[in-house]
């Protein structure tokens, strides 16, 4: 995966900052004001020491003391204002960026999701964005303000006595060199640690989703060991970061201390020979002491900036991923009297970056209302072919049409309102039964949900659930049986009353009893639509009007089951490899 240069990644956040720039600028100005107040206090101190104290006159003293108190109060107030002002914008930016990456993930093609680990996406949408929020609210502002304060402080020192300014400058110069040396090393470590967090999130997610497999095979301890090893790697990276930061901090803290010592040495000599007043020396040392926070914080601020830049780069890597399946520039309309005829015409398909064509000229003509079962050896491309109808992937040659219109010429929303799909693995979301079914179409009424459940033979078991339609089903619907989940997935597929249904092996992995229930549901569902059904079992083949045999990227035979049994040796061979006995099918 290409890595976006980190600082460019940070700059690209500007459009998100734009709507709230007013408040961000005001909060920056507030911090600057508080810093200016802090830097003015030593100047008043100089006036007190060289004026009333040196001359032993107490007259102007109260006013000068009040000035110090007011400056201190304004400094504190401005800090408070910054904190108040910055909270809203930074959380707003985080929320917007999070919503945008989520929306983008929905648009990205399946091929993207096949390539990317879910934990990497999770860490980018959650922890990287929190890092960015912290940067915008705090480190980003202080990076600018502290740099200005350092420049201003230096100017004050030069104003007080050039020698004090020069000493501070000489002591600060090595910091620039050390910081640049450290920056690139720290950036590499930061990137590594943030990627490792993503890898860890992937392991946690996969092991939670696959907990049944892991338990059944007793692989929990093995995975726990692997996880611990990855966690140790992350710890190693974090320790390397801390060691590097410790070195930088050491240098950053030592250099200003040396500066203050040098100021005291040369300043005292100056006072002794009369070239400096005591007030100037005390004010100079106070300014240098005040500059310690802006100086000390540089290491931490650079670390935060690095972290934020890496987080931004990781964010943009996902946002820059190309949405390859989009609405056409000039969309066509489906005919109003469309009946759901589907044609595959010379369809070819190869995965991006792969030379191997999985489909190399598939022709199938699905007549309106007909069910065609697709059989073929494992890996022959059956699932791939089904994905081309609702454009989960696009053909690389030929075309797929619905009612005579190339699916690529239709708006995605229009296409997906007439074509519905159910998959081998019926994914259910942690939401109510109603929400899970209504996911299949927009603005669905309860009556429509019930009708879909009836068609999918699911109404009875849903009514037996503790809260009926409102029952929340667990993540991935794990609390339901396989057959119940399949029937809910079928209800979701039919709720929008599609004209075309594409089913990727809906009877796989079901026991005999459950299979019969889902088969009944399927018969009822298929009677109303044109359907392409991937079949791994003779029982699924039985549901079809015709069967197409996919072999070596082409349709090797197509016809009714009985015709093919008589005429196609390849079909008979294929059936003998299916899960049930061919004899059972023939009956
Ligand atoms: N991202 C990818 N890049 C390259 N090849 C891929 C990719 N994804 C899948 N394939 C290959 O595409 C081929 C077709 O896969 P597909 O899932 O369509 O087969 P299938 O007939 O549905 O198999 P099964 O019956 O086992 O479900 C397989 O050989 C698979 O290895």
TrEMBL record:
Q: How does it sit in the membrane?
A: Multi-pass membrane protein
Taxonomy, superkingdom: Bacteria
Q: Which InterPro entries match?
A: AAA+_ATPase, ABC1_TM_dom, ABC1_TM_sf, ABC_transporter-like_ATP-bd, ABC_transporter-like_CS, P-loop_NTPase, Type_1_exporter
Cell wall biogenesis/degradation is among the record's keywords: no
Q: Does the keyword Transmembrane apply?
A: yes
User: Which residue range or ranges hold the ABC transmembrane type-1 domain?
Assistant: 25-307
- Cellular localisation: Cell membrane
Mark the transmembrane ranges.
20-41, 61-81, 135-157, 163-182, 244-266
Give the principal location in a single coarse category.
membrane
- A GO MF term: ATP binding
Task: Name all ABC transporter domain ranges.
Answer: 342-577
Question: What PANTHER family does the record point to?
Answer: ATP-BINDING CASSETTE SUB-FAMILY B MEMBER 10, MITOCHONDRIAL, ATP-DEPENDENT PERMEASE MDL1, MITOCHONDRIAL
Name of the featured protein? ATP-binding cassette, subfamily B
Please name the source species.
Answer: Actinokineospora diospyrosa
């Amino acid at each position: 995966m290409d890595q976006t240069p980190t600082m460019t990644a940070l700059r690209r956040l500007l459009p998100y900052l734009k709507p709230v720039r007013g408040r961000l600028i005001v909060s920056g100005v507030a911090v600057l004001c508080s810093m200016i107040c802090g830097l003015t206090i030593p100047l008043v101190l100089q006036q007190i020491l060289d004026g009333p104290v040196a001359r032993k006159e107490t007259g102007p003293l109260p006013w000068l003391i009040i000035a110090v108190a007011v400056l201190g109060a304004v400094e504190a107030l401005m800090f408070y204002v910054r904190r108040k002002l910055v909270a809203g914008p930074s959380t707003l930016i985080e929320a917007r960026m999070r919503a945008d990456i989520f929306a983008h993930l929905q648009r990205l093609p399946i091929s993207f999701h096949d390539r990317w680990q879910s934990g990497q996406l999770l860490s980018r949408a959650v922890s990287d964005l929190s890092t960015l929020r912290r940067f915008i609210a705090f480190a980003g502002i202080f990076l600018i303000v502290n740099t200005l304060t350092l420049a201003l402080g230096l100017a004050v020192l030069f104003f007080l006595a050039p020698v004090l300014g020069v000493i501070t400058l000489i002591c600060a110069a090595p910091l620039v060199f050390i910081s640049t040396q450290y920056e690139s090393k720290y950036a590499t470590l930061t990137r590594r640690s943030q990627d490792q967090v993503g890898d860890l999130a992937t392991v946690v997610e996969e092991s939670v989703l696959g907990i049944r497999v892991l338990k059944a095979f007793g692989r929990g301890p093995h995975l726990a060991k692997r996880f611990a090893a990855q966690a140790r790697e992350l710890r190693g990276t974090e320790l390397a970061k801390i060691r590097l930061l410790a070195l930088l901090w050491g240098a950053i803290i030592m250099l200003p201390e040396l500066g203050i010592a040098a100021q005291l040495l040369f300043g005292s000599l100056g006072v002794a020979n009369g070239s400096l007043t005591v007030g100037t020396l005390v004010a100079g040392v106070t300014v240098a002491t005040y500059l310690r926070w802006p100086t000390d914080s540089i290491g931490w601020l650079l670390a935060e900036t690095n972290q934020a830049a890496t987080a931004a780069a990781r964010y943009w890597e996902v946002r820059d991923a190309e949405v390859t399946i989009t609405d056409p520039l000039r969309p066509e309309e489906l005919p109003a009297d469309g009946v759901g005829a589907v044609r595959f015409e010379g369809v070819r398909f190869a995965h991006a970056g792969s030379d191997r064509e999985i489909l190399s000229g598939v022709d199938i003509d699905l007549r309106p209302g007909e069910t065609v079962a697709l059989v073929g050896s494992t890996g022959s491309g059956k699932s791939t072919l089904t994905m081309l109808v609702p454009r989960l992937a696009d053909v690389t040659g030929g075309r797929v049409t619905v009612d005579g219109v190339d699916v690529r010429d239709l708006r995605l929303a229009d296409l997906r309102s007439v074509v519905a799909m159910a998959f081998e693995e019926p994914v259910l979301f942690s939401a109510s039964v109603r929400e899970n079914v209504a996911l299949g179409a927009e603005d669905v009424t309860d009556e429509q949900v019930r009708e879909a459940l009836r068609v999918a033979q699911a109404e009875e078991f849903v009514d037996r659930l503790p809260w009926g339609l409102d029952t929340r089903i667990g993540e991935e619907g794990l609390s339901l049986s396989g057959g119940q989940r399949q029937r809910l997935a079928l209800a979701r597929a039919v709720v929008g009353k599609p004209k075309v249904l594409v089913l990727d092996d809906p009877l796989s992995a079901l026991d005999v009893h459950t299979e019969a229930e889902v088969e009944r549901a399927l018969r009822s569902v298929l009677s109303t639509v044109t359907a392409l059904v991937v079949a791994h079992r003779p029982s699924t083949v039985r549901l079809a009007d015709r069967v197409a045999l996919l072999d070596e990227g082409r349709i090797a035979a197509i016809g009714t089951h009985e015709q093919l049994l008589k005429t196609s040796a390849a079909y008979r061979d294929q059936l003998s490899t299916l899960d049930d006995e061919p004899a059972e099918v023939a009956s």
